[in-house]
Every structure is written in structure tokens, then in C-alpha cells.
Amino acid sequence: MQIRFSRTLPDSHIKNTDVQRSEKWLGYLIGPAGALLLNAVLATYLNVYYTDVLNLTSVWGGAFLTIFPIISKIIDAVTNIIMGYLIDHTKTPQGKARPWILLSAPLLTITGILLFTVPAGSETVQVFWIMISYNLFYSFAFTIFNMSHNLMVPLSTRNTQQRGSLSVFNQIATIMMSGIIVALIFPMAIMPALGVDKSKWITTMCTLSILALPLTILEYFFTKERVTLEDADTPRQTTPYKTMIKAIFSDRYMVLILLYFLIYTVGTQFKNLGLVYFCNYVLGTYNDGITQTLISVVGGIPMGIGIFAVWPLAKKFGKRNLTMAGFVLYAIGSLICWIFPTNLVIVIIGQFIKNIGGLPCSYVFMALFADVLDHMEWKNHFRCDGVAMSIYNTIAVASTGIVTGLFNLLLAKTGYVAPYYDAAGQLIAVQSDAVKSAITFSFVGLETITAVILVIILAFIPVEKFIQKEQEEIKARKEKGKDLSVRES
């Protein structure tokens, strides 16, 4: 089965066979920024909206915010698998992933608005609205965008240098949204202004949802699937889904890199969920506009340095080796914060060390993942980008649900109390030592452990050593196949 879009799709503005400057800046930096900003805000603050604004922590005895994210992410995992299948069976002159980016643009805006416009009706109405809107956004709209967006680096080019450059620009967009706007501007200026005022939250989040529309369309116009279009003039054989799944799980490098991603994602998601709570209750005071900003500035400085330093170092020492060394620093920095969680100066030092260590992983992972995809093509004589990315995204979304559920369970079981106003109109936001310990482990404790595990896993993924030779063999095969096709015709 092949999927063909019924109407002629607009052409890409990128025509050259080599990666262009406009492609880097508009297709991989500015274009994705709208959807990535929306997602970054949701990853950090949607749970805060549920617990602090809508006061849902105690719904169903704390079970709702524990079970609902897990069930929703199971649904999301299924839709990711379906989406991977659809992408691998899509054939258009514009590629197999880019058309889905265009489709996702209006869907992101509509579903993003629905997430926050929860009716002020009964508890049952609110719960129903949240379950529907959450799954429309994550299981439908963002799945379509994220699957297709994440495939753009692997499908953009086979040139490892150009691919690495695009991976860096792609990650700059992610880091700009999460590390600068969400982590700096939001806690310093926006969150203190929003407080627990529902109408202000709705206005702000609807604005971000609308912003995603034109920027996502920009990404579509300034990207190009050169790898997919290599076979545009040759008959395309459809590889059975079971065959692709078997190929993925029988390749040790793919299994290891997916395991790596799972462990890294779990640690990162606990950290992201715990950040606001850690700054509000352990290190600082509720929405003080200072603590989270300071922590985020410390994270933003290394990420800014990384734009210029990481790729030259990766070319010299290798993507994998540099990432392994980074995770050693990552573990050390997290451990320092875990031991002294209430000392602002020491936490800042620990965060700086940790974020320096996290630079290689942040900027070069997708380039390393693309190398593994090329290795699999060399090994199996077919590509399985969509299926591999569906598993990649399934890991991301399933772990998000599980982590969110576990985090909310920790809050509920340790006695988390939502902020409230007393009779004098003063905001009360105080938590017990048990709650603070749970928050601290979520923010810095778990990542200390996961960083050590990741160093060990990376030691067994030496795919860079032979990728250039394998790519040359793939190119030779394709040229031979074209020659045979011409002679037969």
C-alpha cells in the first residue's frame, strides 16, 4: 500500500543538491521553533496548570493525574506506530515526511488551544475535556509533526558533515525554546504575571498555539528530502512491516541507541517535571521570578557555547566519544546538586558542570541516529526510517506518560498541597520534607544515575568507525541498480 496526497503539494524552496544556508536557518532553526516552543511550554507547565490552576491533584484520590497520563501515552504510542507506517508508505514528489509537516501546522494550533480552554463546569466535565484535548494534541497533532520533523535530518542528505550541521541547527531550535524562552523568560516574566489566573493562562497559551501555524509551514517550504528523492525515478518496492521491525530489533546498534534514548528520556522528563517544583519549594519560593531564572541562565550559557564548540569537537574526537565524556561531567554535576539541594551557589555550580556535560548529547544525537539508519540500510538493503522513528517516538511518548504519572503519584503520596490564598489574601505555597525529597530526586537525583548508565551503553555503539565505507557501498548499489533498470527498459 502506498499513500499519495490527492492534491499537488507546493514545491520546496530548496532546489540545490547540497545543504543551503537558507535551509539551515529557515528550515531547521526558525521553522520548527513554533511547534517546539509550544511543546516545551507544555512539557514544563501543562502539569503545573493541572495541579495549581485547575487544582486536580486530589481528583479521584490522586488517581486521575496518575493514571490519565499513562493511558493517554499508551494511545499516543499506538498512533506513533501507525504514523511510522504511514510515512514509510507515503510517496510524493515532496518526499515521504515533509507532506505530513504541512498537514500538522493547523492541527497543532487548534488542539493547542483546546488544551487550555477547559470549561469551568463540573469536575466530570473538566476531566472529560482534559482527556479528549490532551489526546487530540499529543496522540494526533503533535505525533504527526514530531514524527515527520525528526526524520528531516536523517532524510536531508547522506553527507555526514552537512547532516551534522543540520543536526546542530535543529537542536539550537529546541534549546532556544526550552533553554531560553521557557527556562528564562517564562519563570522571570511570564509565570509571575500569570500566577494561578486561568484567563491569563488561556490567553498566553492560545497565542503560542497560533504562532506555531506560520512557522511550521515555513519549515515545510525550506526543507528537502534528498535521501528519499534518490529513488524518485526508480520503481519502489514496499518492504513488509514485519520485515522492518525484525531488522530493527535484530541490529544491535539500533537496539542500543533506542535503549540509550529511553534511559536518557526518562531521566530528562523527571528533571523537566521537577524543575518548576524544585525552584518553587526546595531552592526558592513560589514563582519568585529569580530562582528558576538563575538555574536556567546557568543552563543557557553552556548551550550558547555549544553552538560553536560541539561540532568541531565531534568531528575531531567522534560523536560517540564526545558524548560519553560529556555524560561523565553530567553525572558529577547532578551529584553535586543532589547532595546540596538547598544551597543556591552550589546548585548553580553543579548545574553548570552538568549542562556542559550535556552539550554533546543535545547537539549531535540525531546525527548519530542517522548514522545507525544508514548502517541498517547497508546491512538490509532497505530503509526503515518511518518505523524506526515510530519506535523512537513511542519511547518518548510512552515514557512521558509513565514518568508524568509516577511524578504525580509521588506528589500525591507524599502529601503535595496546591497553592491557595488564605483569608487575608496571601498566597500560601509550602510543602513537607517528604514532598521536597521527592521533588529533589526527580530534578537531580535520577539523572545522576542515568548518566552513568548512558556512558556504558555508548561504549558499545562504534557505528562511526565504518559508516563512510558503508555509505559508499550503498551509493554503488544504487548506481548499479539504476544501470540495470535502464538496460531492462
Write up this protein.
A two-stranded antiparallel sheet has the order 1-2. It is globular, with a radius of gyration of 23 Å. Strand 1 and strand 2 (427-428) form a beta hairpin. Helix 7 (160-194) runs antiparallel to helix 12, helix 13 runs antiparallel to helix 14 (344-357) and helix 16 (385-414) runs antiparallel to helix 17. The chain is 76% helix and 1% strand. It has 18 helices and two strands. It has 489 residues and is mostly helical.
Distinctive features:
single chain, 489 residues, mainly alpha, 18 helices, 2 strands, two-stranded antiparallel sheet
Q: If you average the pLDDT, what whole number results?
A: 86
What global shape is seen? globular
How much strand? under 5%
Tell me the helix content. over 70%
In N-to-C order, the SSE pattern is HHHHHHHHHHHHHHHHEEHH
Report the end-to-end length measured between terminal Cα atoms.
24 Å
**What Rg, in angstroms, do the CA atoms define?**
23 Å
Count the helices. How many? 18
Kindly name the structural category. mainly alpha
The strand order across the widest sheet is 1-2
- Biggest sheet descriptor: 2 strands, antiparallel
Multimeric status of the protein: single chain
What low-confidence regions span 5 or more consecutive residues with pLDDT below 50?
A: none
Could you give the count of β-strands? Answer: 2
